[in-house]
Amino acid sequence: MTTTTTRPSATNPTTPLGRSSDYLDNRTGIGHAVKEFARKVFPDHWSFLLGEIALYSFVVLLITGTFLTMFFVPSMSLSTYEGQPATMHGLLMSDAFASTLRLSFEVRGGLLMRQIHHWAALVFMASIVTHMMRIFFTGAFRRPREFNWLIGFTLLLTGLLAGFTGYSLPDDVLSGNGLAIANGVVKSIPVIGSYMSYFIFGGDFPGEQIIPRLFTLHILLIPAIILALVALHLMFVVVHKHTQYPGGGRKDGNVVGFPLFPVYTAKAGGFFFVVFAVLSLMGATMAINTVWNYGPFDPSPISAGAQPDWYMLFLEGSLRLMPGQAEFVSWGDFTWSFNVLVPAVLPVLLLMGFALYPFLEAKVTGDDREHHVLDRPRNRPTRTGIGMAFLAFFVILAFAGSNDLIATHFHLSINGITWTFRVLIFLGPWFAFWITKRICLGLQRKDRELVLHGHETGRIVRFASGEYIEVHRPLDEQERWLRVNYRAHQPLELPAPTGPKGSKDKSYKKTKRWATLSRFFYEDRIEPVTPAELAASHSHGEHDALPGGEDHALVAPDHSVDATEQSR
Amino acid sequence: MKALAARRHHRFAPVVLLLLALLVTGGVYAVLAPSQARADTASTQDIETGKKLFQANCATCHGLNAQGTANAPSLIGVGAAAVDFQVSTGRMPMAMDGPQAQVKPRQMTEEQTSQLAAYIASIGTGPAIPTDEQVDGSKGNPATGAEIFRTNCAMCHNATGQGGALSEGKYAPSLERTSARNIYQAMLTGPQSMPVFNDANITPEEKRDVIAYLEAQRDGSAGGATLGSLGPVAEGIWAWVVGLGLLIGAAVWIGAKSS
Amino acid sequence: MSSKTTDVTVPHPEGDLERFQDPGIPEHRPRMADTDPKADKRAERQVVILFTISVIGTLVALWAYFAVRPDGTTAGVRTSTMVLGIAIFFALAGIGVGAIHWAKTLMSDHEVVEDRHATRSPDDVREIAVQKLADGIKESGVGRRSVLKGVVVSALALFPLTIAVPLISSVGGDWNVGTFRTTLWKKGTRLTYDPTGRPIKASDVTIGSAVHVIPEVTEEFRQTGEWISEKAKALVLMVRLDPRDFKPFAKGRENWTYDGIIAFSKICTHVGCPVALYEQQTHHLLCPCHQSTFDVADGAKVVFGPAKRPLPQLPITVDSEGYLVAQDGFDEPIGPSYWERLR
């Protein structure tokens, strides 16, 4: 009898499992895939799970969303509602709103599914942003992953659309006013704005078409696009293999980690259940989007504190900050509504610019090698600073979008808050850049100090000569490697001008501009410690001159003493 | 001991004792005697006392005859309802300059408040204090109340009455703890920035419906913790703090080396 | 002191400087379950307990679904949602935490190394691929048949129009954007209370009132979806001021008010929210969406915020019975600006 527990016979199966695998492989050739992928190695770090939070919350959205589609009626036909809650009983409302109420109050588990769905949407967007920032700050967008970065960025935008179309479906006063604002923004587009508004709503606002149209977008077209992009996104992760943080044994040419089966099947599979569990807990205990308090959509009422879901707040904030003077009527009696266009378009343009960052960085470093080992953010001060500046910009806009809530809670004047943010939106990102860059450079210097001088042990030793020193424990190999294993990019060297026009030549000017930008990026830099510097720091009492170095204060005489060494 | 006691018998001791006894009896009576029902019509005595209270506490800003000064508007014709609202919420007498009068611990007792109200009612016709039946939420229709509230009130006070911002530091306060009578009176009299919703605009029945709606909000939310009923901004903050917080915590645990 | 920092900033050309060497993968540190059989058993027991919690959670959830029904009250719905949801939490978390704990404590945690290959295809593969493409192109003959190439490209570029044009055109309905200019307000239309529809007597509007106004329509029309779209253009906010508080009216608008009662379109000229907050003492109208502020005493001029244009004014008067009526419709399109608004 063949033993099957450790090594099943692949050519002559006898067990049920073996025979079914044989059946399957004969018809699909799945053996290739199993050989290739079953023990595929993935590196282990918590920050690699952020993308998984996004993926799993999307799966939760699909599952709970399917439940909701069984009960939601995407129609704006009016009828008188009879049922719970008492504050809605007897009101004329659309079928969309009425079906949302019935789903919440009459279908058992309906409100739970609705709340899990909405919390999952908020967490989905939050995890996309966090994941994207991790990719950015660790440089995981470098070759060969530029396409994946762009796919991910497109997923961010489609996620925004999915959320916007989704929360507008119940046809309540809050989301309806959001649609009114969207209509106003669309109308402000020059030449075609009014036609685009008519197109979207099938007529005047709100018309009777918009909810069914949003429904089709929300459950069919947008999820299809997201699923296709996610599939591409994951395929690239498989093809490129996952990146890894710097450390002992980790190179651009290998992956160090744990095999897919069984470790990652358990960890990642388990994480799906954890994500679903947390979202269920939130849906069970925290009320969200209580549409019966907002009321069925009517263009007349509106609530104080009218904001969209958090991921749209940056657009809301920019609309609130823009002063009104920017609209004017031109020759021909045409109205240019820049007071609406600028705040709606500018943040999106900036986002697009952010999406192109990988290509900019490749040009200013002149680095087009494949990279599979990540950067520590502190080792790329300018990049990290730019990322923080963008974050600051969008966070300030999100706060500006909540200005009336800030006013109520902190007893401030809403006009004062608006003016403060008008100033901060310009100063804030610049300040965030500057301070982040200085912090990164400072951390790099600290790392150098640590490598050169070791950990402070707090032990004071007094020599016979009367001198006191603090004993430093030198770094072990792994600790040191982490802090020296990076490359401090240098600014691009500007070659001498060739060609007939010399330095006036157009392509030379272009090269010069890139070189100037490169200097902005890499002029301030901290080089990693070399063995020679470490040796110099260990010498007792002498300054060793290093080639090309300054002659003072390079490395102070170091008194690191081995734990076993006693006084001299 | 005996010597001390002997020296304590003063000539006037019986008189003092009698006075003490009278005081004690009177005090006990005042505490234990049943309180009088609020008279529907104010007595002349109330109006007189009210006038004295007014001149002591309000006249500096509102003028000796409530005709108004540069600092404060005239109170002639504002009605008893306005006085009851402003004084029972502690807004008046106003203690501090600011964008608007703040709610603070009330300075006048209920009796004093009704005396002030009686005085102001006597110097001009204005809205009267509503009866208990007029403000009884259980008799109101919360669905109609919700509709009226959404159209007229939610834009300042928020959809469930949590309060909201006005310009230049003014605000519409939260209605979570406002009494039914004061909800009615505020609508009727339009204090400070709040517009006046007279009985032609929102009828007395509709006002009672609004009270029914606001009282229904105090049962909490069908979905769980209300998170302040502040809408998507609060929900977004909680999604990041609780949702992402717990999940990133789980991720850190997954990635950590096990002992 | 030199202006340079004390850091080494002098570039060292790559390759010509000795750098630290990779110390290799860190030594494996055994876990308790790897060395101690009791710890191993304990970890296994913990995993079993976690998965059992999940099973219990599922059972409780099923029981809750049937036993804890929403009873039509707020508290009832809240209880049923919470019990069901928390049971589901345990059902899911048991599996998740159990699987992760199993992987962390019991599954092998020896790090494995796998080689990466360059992403790019090897040169020989590329050559064959290029050759195959070239062969295919040669066989198709498209290289020398330029007219053919041109027509193929044109056909492929044009055919999507057959779907796109009908789709876009039909979705836009009758494309009659002229409807943006007209509202239900005409000469003689009565002003009524929103949402009840009762007509408004001028004498009922006292100083300090803010009245939300809709035009008078039949009760039947108010039950239709079309009414909502018309209402979205016809909303009006009406207030009464002391006539002495008004700044001088614009030319032609001197008799658009009635005894201090003035009416404006309620649709914000910024992006279209209802401008519903009326501050009685400052006579400012505040829009809650983006804080555009309009001064009622000064023709609803913008005093703060992202709006540019004042709110359109509805000219009003009273009819023979004392009810407020419109003298005419608005003299400009209401709501947010658009390109051809003034043409």
Describe this structure in words.
The complex is a heterotrimer of chains A (568), B (259) and C (343). Chain A has 568 residues and is mainly alpha-helical. Chain A contains 20 helices and eight strands. Helix content of chain A is 58%, strand content 6%. In chain A, 47% of the residues are buried. The model of chain A is unreliable at 541-568 (pLDDT under 50). With 259 residues, chain B is mainly alpha-helical. Helix content of chain B is 50%, strand content 2%. Chain B has eleven helices and two strands; from the N terminus they run H-H-H-H-H-H-H-H-E-E-H-H-H. In chain B, a hairpin with a 5-residue loop joins strand 1 (164-165) and strand 2 (171-172). The radius of gyration of chain B is 27 Å and the shape is extended. The model of chain B has no long low-confidence stretch (mean pLDDT 89). Chain C has 343 residues and is α+β, with helices and mostly antiparallel strands. Helices cover 35% and strands 13% of the residues of chain C. Chain C has seven helices and twelve strands. Chain C has helices spanning 32-35, 37-67, 74-105, 123-140, 146-158, 161-171, 225-234, and strands at residues 112-115, 191-193, 210-215, 236-240, 261-265, 277-279, 284-286, 293-295, 301-304, 313-314, 316-318, 324-326. The radius of gyration of chain C is 38 Å and the shape is extended. At the B-C interface, helix 7 of B face helix 3, strand 3 and strand 6 of C.
